[in-house]
DNA sequence: TCCATTCTCTGACTCTAGTCAGGCAATAAG
DNA sequence: CTTATTGCCTGACTAGAGTCAGAGAATGGA
C-alpha cells in the first residue's frame, strides 16, 4: 500500500486520475451489465424496482421525473412489471416485478456478477485481497465525504429520531439498562441556542448521527448525546462531530469542554482519549457515568 | 485498512458494491464536470483534443465514429477549435484548440478539480491520505486486471518493439553496456513453436511487456527476455508472465525451468527468489549473466 | 358540498447521439 | 493516365431520454 506523503495538489490529482480510470472501468462494467437488449433507462428501472418489494410510483418518480410513466408502460408491455393502484390511496400506483421481471433482473444480476468477477480473475490471490481491501477503503471514505453536518433544533423529527435511537441503544448496552428519566439533561432546551446547540449528520438526506453541546453560563461547555448510527460507523464521523462541537465551543469563547461517559462505551472512551481529552474527577452526579473527561481548547 | 479474509464470493460482492458506490460518486463528478452549457459529446471531444497538441481527425474518429464530423462543426461554429488540412496529405484534416477553446477547456479542468477537491474537503488529513493511497491501489490493480497476455510470433512488430526496448534498457543498465551480438540466443526461431514460445502483455492494445520460453529437446526449459515496460511496472505483471511461462512449460511436460540474469537487474533477481527459484551454478556461457536460477515445477 | 391538491398519464415536442448511404476531393497503385 | 482507395463530409433517418402542458381521477379540507 502506497503511503507516501502527498501535497494537497497531488491528492487532488490522484482523485482525478482515479475518477478517470475508474469511470472508464466501472463505466464499461456498468454499461455492459445494463446494456442487454433493453435500453439503459428500462434496465435501470428494472434494477431499482428490486426483487421483492413493491414501490409507490410516486417515490420512483422522484428519481426519474415524469419519464418513468413511459418506461413503466414499456416494461409493462413486456410483462416484466405489474402496476396496481395503492390499496389505501387510489391516486398512487404501485409497481412490483412479475416472475418474468424477476427472471430478467436475475440475468442483469448474473451479468454484473460475471463482470465483477472478470476484474478479479486476472489477479492472483494476494492482489485480489489487496484490491477488495482498497475498494472497501475507498468506498468507506467516499461515503464519509458525502456526509453533511448541520445545526438543527433538537425537537426536529430527525433529531428526535437520533436521540431516541441513542437512548434505545444505551438501554441495550448498559448492564443496568438505561432509564431516560434518571439521567441528567431532561430538557431539550439545554441543547438549543442560546443555552447550547445540536448538530446532526446526514448521509443522502438520512440522519445518521448527532451530538449536542451544553453551554451553561457558569460552567465549562459540555458535550452530550454524541451518537452515530450503526450503519454509519467506521467512517470517522464521531471524530468529525466531536471536533466540530469543539470548534463551535471555541468560537463561542469557551476554553474548556468536558463530558462524561459510561464504561460500556469503549469505542467512545478511546475516541476521547485519542482526541486530547484527559480523565478528571466527576464534575456531576450523572448516575450512568463512569468516566469524566475534559479538554483545553487551543 | 481492511485485511479480513474474504471468500471469492465476498470479493465479488465487494467489487460490485464498490462499482455501485463509485459509479454514483464518480458518475456525478464526471457528469457535472462535463455538464456545463455544452452537451456531453462536445465537452468530451473538447477535452480529448487537449491543450497543446494537434490531432488528425482520422485518429479521433477511431474513438468517436463518423459522428465527430458534426461535433467538430458545432465546436468550430463556436470558435473553439480550428480544423485545417494536413500539410502532407490534404485528405487528412487536423484539429487544434483555439484560444477560446483553451479557455473553455480550462474551465472544465477547474470544475473537475473543484469537484475532486470537494471529495477530499470534508475529510481530515489522515483520512485524505488513506483515501488517496487506497485510490492509487485500486487504480493500479484495476489497470493490472485489464492487461491481457497472448502468445505471439517473436517477429511480430509488437514483439520486436518489446525486444528492442528490452535490449535498449539493458544497454543503459549494465555497467558494461549491452551488445546484442555478444549475448546468447541470436535466433528468434528459438522462441517460436516448436522450439519455444513468446508471450506478450498488452494494456489497452499497447504492448507493455513480454517473456520468452526456450524449449530445447536435450535440456530444461529456459526463460528469456522477460521485460516489462517502465509505464507498466508495479502492476505485478512480471510475476504474472513468469508464472504463465512456467505453467506453459509444465503443460508441455517440462519439470524444470531455468534462467540467468544480470546483477544490475535487482528487481528481477528478487522476483525469481520470491517465486521459488534457487540459485545454481552457471549452466551456460552467457557473458552478461551473474546469477543462474532454476525451479522445479510442481 | 365544493374546491384545491395530489398523483399519474398522455400527446406533442425537443435534443443528443448516433447509423447509413452517397458523394467529393486527394492520393496511391497499376 | 486511369482506377482504386482513403479520408472526410452531408443529408436523411432513427432511438432514447427527456420536457412541458394539459387532462382526468382520487382525495383532503373548508
Automatic annotation (TrEMBL), chains A, B:
- Please list which residues make up the signal peptide: none
Q: Which UniProt keywords apply?
A: Acyltransferase, Transferase
Protein origin, superkingdom = Bacteria
Q: Name one Pfam family in it.
A: Acetyltransf_1
Q: Which residues form the N-acetyltransferase domain?
A: 147-298
Q: Write one Gene Ontology MF term.
A: acyltransferase activity, transferring groups other than amino-acyl groups
Q: What name does the UniProt record give this protein?
A: Bifunctional helix-turn-helix transcriptional regulator/GNAT family N-acetyltransferase
**Organism in which the protein naturally occurs:** Streptomyces tardus
Amino acid at each position: 500500500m502506497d503511503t507516501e506523503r502527498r501535497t494537497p495538489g497531488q491528492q487532488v490529482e490522484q482523485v482525478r486520475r482515479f475518477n478517470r480510470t475508474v469511470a472508464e472501468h466501472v463505466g464499461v462494467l456498468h454499461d455492459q451489465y445494463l446494456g442487454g437488449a433493453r435500453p439503459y433507462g428500462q434496465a435501470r428501472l428494472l434494477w431499482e424496482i428490486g426483487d421483492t418489494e413493491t414501490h409507490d410510483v410516486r417515490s420512483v418518480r422522484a428519481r426519474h421525473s415524469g419519464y418513468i410513466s413511459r418506461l413503466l408502460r414499456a416494461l409493462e408491455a413486456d410483462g416484466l412489471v405489474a402496476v396496481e393502484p395503492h390499496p389505501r390511496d387510489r391516486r398512487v400506483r404501485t409497481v412490483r416485478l412479475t416472475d418474468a421481471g424477476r427472471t430478467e433482473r436475475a440475468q442483469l444480476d448474473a451479468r454484473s456478477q460475471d463482470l465483477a468477477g472478470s476484474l478479479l480473475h486476472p489477479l492472483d490471490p494476494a492482489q485480489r485481497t489487496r484490491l477488495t481491501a482498497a475498494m472497501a477503503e475507498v468506498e468507506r471514505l467516499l461515503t464519509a465525504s458525502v456526509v453533511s453536518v448541520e445545526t438543527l433544533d433538537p425537537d426536529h423529527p430527525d433529531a428526535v429520531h437520533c436521540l431516541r435511537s441513542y437512548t434505545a441503544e444505551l438501554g441495550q448496552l448498559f448492564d443496568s439498562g438505561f432509564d431516560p428519566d434518571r439521567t441528567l439533561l431532561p430538557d431539550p432546551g439545554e441543547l438549543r441556542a442560546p443555552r447550547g446547540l445540536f448538530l446532526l449528520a446526514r448521509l443522502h438526506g438520512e440522519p445518521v448521527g448527532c451530538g449536542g453541546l451544553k453551554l451553561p453560563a457558569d460552567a465549562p461547555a459540555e458535550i452530550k448525546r454524541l451518537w452515530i448510527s450503526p450503519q454509519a460507523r467506521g467512517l470517522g464521523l464521531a471524530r468529525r462531530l466531536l471536533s466540530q462541537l469543539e470548534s463551535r465551543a471555541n468560537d463561542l469563547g469557551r476554553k474548556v469542554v468536558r463530558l462524561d461517559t459510561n464504561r460500556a462505551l469503549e469505542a467512545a472512551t478511546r475516541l476521547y482519549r485519542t482526541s486530547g481529552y484527559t480523565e478528571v474527577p466527576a464534575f456531576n452526579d450523572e448516575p450512568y457515568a463512569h468516566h469524566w473527561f475534559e479538554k483545553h481548547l487551543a
